[in-house]
Structures are given as structure tokens and as C-alpha cells.
Amino acid sequence: MVPRGAPRGDYDPTQPTLWQRLDWLARTLVPGGLTLVMLLISVAPSRLPGFVHVTPMVALICVYYWAVTRPGALGYGTAFLLGLVEDSLTGVPLGLSSLAFLITQATVASQYKYFLGKPFLVTWWAFFLIAAGIALFKGLALSAYHGQLITMTALVFSTLLTIAMYPPFAWLLSRVSHLVFRES
Amino acid sequence: MKPPSAPTPRLSALRALLHKSAFVALAGLAFAVMLLGKADTLLIERMRATVIDAAAPLLEVLATPAENVAAVFANLRQLSVLRAENERLSEENDRLGRWQAVARQLEAENEALRSLLHYVPDPTAHTISARVVADTGGSFARSLLVLAGERNGVRRGQAVLSGQGLVGTIADAGQRSARVLLLTDINSRVPVLLEESRVRAILMGDNDDMPQLRFLKERAQVRPGDRVVTSGDARVFPPGIPVGVVASVDDKGGIGVDLFVEQGRLDVVRIVDFGLNGILPDQGGM
After folding, report:
1. I want to staple B260 with a disulfide (CB 3.0 to 4.6 A). Which of A76, B104, B164, B207 is the partner?
2. Which sequence ranges are marked TM in the entry (chain A) (predicted)?
3. Strand extents, DSSP E, B80-211
4. Do B136 and A93 touch (CB under 8 A)?
5. B131 touches chain A (CB under 8 A)
6. What is the largest CA-CA distance in chain B?
């Protein structure tokens, strides 16, 4: 029973308050939602004719970032769905990006102890390896799918741009992460 | 995420197992979806259409600031070349004026000859103008998303044009949006001919900026600078839509075509229904 004079008659300390619920909702939705927004921004027309061919793989940056800094914040299921959205929008065979995101997450998860408490430069270096690996995987898988080798020049530039864009995106995501997962 | 306070070894082992099996199941599912897509089923097509329909309103909102930023840059660029551009345009205007006179004369002559022959005219094309809201280039795929779908009369396989020439074809059509497969995409195959020599070929995209001419009947007659237009074979496009010019002919047989339409600069495209139902069957449930 709640004693008389408490601020709310029906207050029950064992039940989460509205703010706690909202907080929980934000933690559940923000990693995936933010990745989705970034994905949509990355396909918006830039009107820069040269840039459109080397667009960085922004969603991969987000998936990797959450996998390294907060394992589990972006689950396998969410990554799968995000991949389907990316493939539908860009016209890549449906399922290819899902597979790429899942491989990224599993690779990071298997090396989780290695990433624990490592400085930024180390995670950036690891991202370099993972982004290159994923780009190669997607390029080869796509060539096999179409039975025709795709040109790798744009792929190399896009990968380099993705790696170069990692620090600003990681900074932005770390701000959001601080805001949402404040107490830890 | 709350860190588990003190999980028993058995519980954490179970969790790890679940985690791993979720990965295996989803990776398997992704692979299955890819194979299903290779078989070109209606289900996958509908899934794509649903996703692009859902994303279309968001992309419409996002495209506006991108357009504004680009407009500012374009303005600045234009200011610096205003005088030269003006000179070039008035020169071009003079030249086009002369061509216009020739075209009028030919039009009248055509008219007269057609009436002599009782020529049956081409069916009039139905045109839909649509805004480009997403532009996805790169080495994986080359496509655009446009804000017009089945409810506007857009169907899979229709031709997409801009002021300069052929852009591509409709690959997936949702209710209010559609995806355009560009000529540079690895899936793009367009029957073309060289305007002067009338040599027929297939224009094949390879996810690079310059699609290649393949399956030529007479290779020797191809020279850089030749204009490439659609041939109308296979009844996918009507004949004579400008595509590009031959840019390079190398010894190994590669013939690159420089397209008239530059990806990344398109704001609005025209989707044209020529009333042709060629080899691209409309599986999208007409």
C-alpha cells in the first residue's frame, strides 16, 4: 500500500514510470532508427555527378559502430531488416546487404574481447579491415550472382570514402549514444 | 541494455547458443531471399515495391534540402561562367535556328509523303513526369527512385527519358513510387543501333559509367563519335530515342558508349508508355 500524502494515489514503485518507459523505448528504437535515417539520407540525390558513384556505405558504419560500442543494441533481426530496406532502395539483389550486416555483427561479436576498452584508432583500424572485407564480399557475391565481373574501381573508391567518413559518423553516433544511454 | 548482473553459467551458455542460432537462421534466410530473387519471383518484387512505397514520403522530405544545397552550388558555379555561357548559347541558338528551318521543311515533306503512302502513324505515347527522390550509384547497382507509381499509370518495363535522351526502364513499380534501372546498371540490356551505319547491337551496362556495345553484326564500321539510338528491336522501346555516342573502340573489342544523360543531375524524368509490350512481361499484376 502507498501511504497517504504520496504524490500519486496509484503510485507503485515496482512499476516503471512513464519516463522510464520512454527511456527504454528510446534505447530500443534509437540504434536501428538512426541507422535507417542515415540510410535514407545516403540515398537522397546529392546532385553531385561524381559523388553519386562513390557514395559511402553509411549503414555499414552505423551497424559496425553499434556492434563495437554497444553489443546487442542493434540486434541481428534489426540488421537483417535494415539490409532488406537498403537492397530494396538501391536495387541490389534482395538479401545481400542483410548478409553483409550480419557478417559484420558476427565478426565483431566473435572478437568482442579484443574491442573491449580499446582506443578509437584501434576500432577505426578494425573498421578498415571489416569495410574492405565486406566490400570485397559484396563485389564477389554480386559478380557471381550476375555471372559477370563488376568493375571494381568505383568499389575501391567507395570503400576508401567509407573508411574516411568513419570518424565523423562515429563522433555523431557517440553523441547520440551518450544522450540515450546516459547513466552507463 | 542492462548488463546481466550475475548470470549462471548455464544461462549464459543458453543465451550464447540462442544468439548464435539467431545469426545462423537469419543469414540462411538472407541467402534464401537472394536465391528466390534470382528466380525472379513476384513475391520478391512485391516486397521491394512495398519497401520503396513506405520510404517514398520520407525520401521526398529528405530530397528537398539536398536540392536546395545543390541549387546554391549550381548558382555560384553559373555566376562565374555567365558571360562565356551566354556567348555559347547565342551561338548555339543561331545554329539551332538554321536546323529548325531544315526540320520544318522535312516535317512538311514527311507529311506529304505519308499522305501519299497512307502511312499508319505510331500510337501516341502517354507521358508521366516524376520527381527523382533517390539516386543510388556505385558499383553494386545503378538506379533512381521516382515519385510516381502504379496509381499514376507506371508499369514495369516502361521507358524513362529525360530532355537529353534515354535514362533507363522501370524495374519495380509500387503504388506511389517506382525504381528506375539505369542504362549503366549491370542488369540493363537495350537493343540499339548506330544512327549512320545502321549496325545493330545490344547496349550492356556493367555498373561503370560507360556501358558497352555487344553482339555487333559488323564491328568494322564502328567509329568514335557515332551516335547511338534505340533500335526498337524486341519491342521494348520505340526506335530512334537518343542514347549516347561511341566514346572509345579498343582492340580487344570493347566499345564504350558515352551516354547523353548524366546520372546525378536528374531532377525530373519522364516515364513514357509507348503502348509496347515487348519481351519484358509485366509480372506486376496488371
Report:
1. B164
2. 24-43, 50-68, 88-108, 120-137, 149-173
3. 126-136, 143-146, 159-161, 166-173, 178-182, 189-194, 200-204
4. no
5. no
6. 94
Give me the residue spans of the domains in chain A: 19-40+55-180
pLDDT in tens, A108-119: 988 888 888 888
What is the set of domains in chain B, with CATH numbers?
Answer: 42-117 (no CATH), 189-259 (2.40.10.350)
Contact residues, chain A, for B179 at CB < 8 Å = 89, 91
Complex prediction ipTM:
0.78
Please return the burial class of A56, using the count of CB atoms within 10 Å of its CB with bins 0-12, 13-18 and 19+: buried
B66 touches A at CB < 8 Å: yes
Instruction: List the beta bridge partners of residue A103.
Output: none
Question: What are the residues facing A155 on neighbouring strands?
Answer: none
Q: How far does A93 lie from chain B, in Å, by closest CA?
A: 6
Instruction: Please indicate whether, in this complex, the C-beta atoms of A53 and B209 are within 8 angstroms of each other.
Output: yes
Label residues B122-160 b or e (16+ Cβ within 10 Å = b): eeeeeebebbbbbbbbbbbbbbbbbbbbbebebbbbbbb
Grid cell digits, residue B127: 507521358
Look at A91 and B136 and tell me if their CB atoms are within 8 Å. Answer: yes
